[in-house]
Amino acid sequence: MKRRVSLVIGLLLLAVTWLGPLPALAVHSFTAHMSMHVLVIAAVAPLLALGTAQEQWDPVIQWPFLFSPVLASLIELVVVWVWHTPVLHHAARHIPFMLILEQGSYLIVGLLVWLAAFGGLPADRQARAAGGIAGLLMTSMHMTLLGVLLAMADRVLYPHAGLAPFGLTSQQDQQLGGVIMLVFGGTSYLLGGLYLLAGLLGKERDHVSTR
């Protein structure tokens, strides 16, 4: 039941993210664009993964060799940082097809990371959880680094087509977007890694107490 609820909430949140006001705002607002990014990878992806993991349609059970947690984290790192190069970032904000491609790739790599950490057969959970901790913490670190770079940059890295909304300057808009990445993007993966770690430590404690 909990998994179905997680799946439904994830799908609803994805619909709000992609069909709500954020795509239109993202043309002029770096913060809106970053909010879409963070919602997809740090909220929608884990909800969908938790709703799918260890169920009969869990892809990790079918193709475990495709879901190495550390490799998944490295793939996400490449995808996220490539889309934040100025040229591709600008294209995603002003060309609808590029925005669809960007957001779709974020969802795919987000699901890849979260499913690699939480999916798979119950018999393989301990080994996969250990790898999942490493993968999620690696992702948390590079998300945090990206957020810091954006928030602390002393110049506008992504010029807007016009003024940013809400009375913000382009610099302030970029800084706020960086803070969103730093706080919500990095924290989501960190909490996921800590959750897996707590589960492993609990199992180890139970194992010792039964000896």
UniProtKB/TrEMBL annotation:
It holds the Pfam family Caa3_CtaG. InterPro entries: Caa3_assmbl_CtaG-rel. It is a multi-pass membrane protein. The keyword Cell membrane applies. Its main location: membrane. GO terms for cellular component: plasma membrane. It is found in: Cell membrane. Keywords: Cell membrane, Membrane, Transmembrane, Transmembrane helix. It comes from the Bacteria. The chain crosses the membrane at residues 36-53, 65-84, 104-121, 133-158, 178-201. This is Putative membrane protein. It comes from Pseudomonas duriflava.
